[in-house]
Structure formats: C-alpha cells, structure tokens
Write a structure and sequence with these properties.
230 residues, alpha/beta, Uracil-DNA Glycosylase, subunit E
Amino acid sequence: MIKKKLIEICEKYILDDPIAIIPEPYIPYIPNDWNKILILAESQNLSKTNQNYVDTLKSKSSNEKILRLYDSKNNVGVYPWDDGSLKLAIESSLNVEESKTSISNAVLWSQRNQTGANKNPKGKIKDLSTEIWDEFLKILEPKVVITAGKVAKEVINKTNWKGKKIALRLPSKNAMSRISGMFNEKDLLERFPEVKNVVDMHNDWVKSYSLNKIFYACHAVSLLKDKKLL
C-alpha cells in the first residue's frame, strides 16, 4: 500500500520538458522488514560514463523507471550505498543491518552539462524534489532521515518534515581522499572498534578505496553513536 501511494506521487511529477535525462522521478528502496531508517544521498550519476545504465532506464516503461531502485538488491542505484561507503557507515554507527534500511537520493532527477558530465543538482529539479519528499515523508514517517551531502541536507531541510534528521558528509572519492590520507587505516580501526567489527563481517565493502570508506564510517560513528535515533 505504501509503495502504491509513493508511485502515485511520482506519477504527478513526471516532467514534460527535456531538462532531465529521465523524466520520471523514483520512489525510495524500502525493504520488507524496514527498520524505519531512511538514508538519502544526492542524485543519480547519469553522465555519459554511465550510458549503459541510462540506455537500460530509457528502455523501461514509465512505471519501471519509477521503481528503478528495486531492479537489483545488490546494486540499488544509489552509488555511495552500492559501493559500500554508506552501508559501512550506517552499520557501524547505528548497529543496524543495512539490508533493513531504506535508501534513495534526495534529488530525484539527473542532468548533464555540455560535456556530458554529471551536473550538480539545482534549480527546478531540486525544488520539485523537495515537494516530492514533503509528500513522501508524510507517508513513510521514518524514525530518522540521514542525509549524505549538502544537496540532500538542503532538500530535506526545505520540507515540512519535523522528525529526526542527521546530516553527514557525502562520501565522494575526491572529498574523502583529501582528508583520509592524513590517517593510518590500522590506527582508525583500533580507535573505532564499531567500524572494525563491521569491516571484519563485510570485507567486500572495502575492497576498493578502503581508507576512504573506513574514514567515512569513523565520521558517522563520531556524529551518531551518542544520539538516540531509534
């Protein structure tokens, strides 16, 4: 029933002008045994580098595009979640199972610049995303909304949502690499046993850019561990 209501909201917001790569917005991925935690990154990267995914989306029906985050449980379609960064951070800081957590992006459309690169979300698509999340959150009623990145934070802060919300940094490779190199990976794991425990259980999450992901998880633990969110 919840999913049906969310789909109906998205159907009202299908764009009739070509400002976005895909005109349909999409609903968040919500597992059947949802723990009422909602994680929001910024937007999908539908640049030329991800053209295969874009072509796949364009071949789908309108309803399938709205449900795009349900295509695969292993790769939802939210990059910092799929690459393990947000999964590691959330399990480490909140002691919950990532498989029971809802995930999406705050901005529900994507654009390209003149070179075909991913365009930073702003303007109409950002404002409309705020309107959609205002409606989504009334239906979802999560216990907490955790935003990753400035854009996601701004979108949710402009809604009428009065529930708990926490803002984390976006775990982008560039941003994390500028800081993470100042730390020793082994030392971080010793100082943050919450992170080490999850890394030991899910080593596949840190097969690439391990220091970045571990550093980001430590950031999440530092901000969230003492907050009563659940």
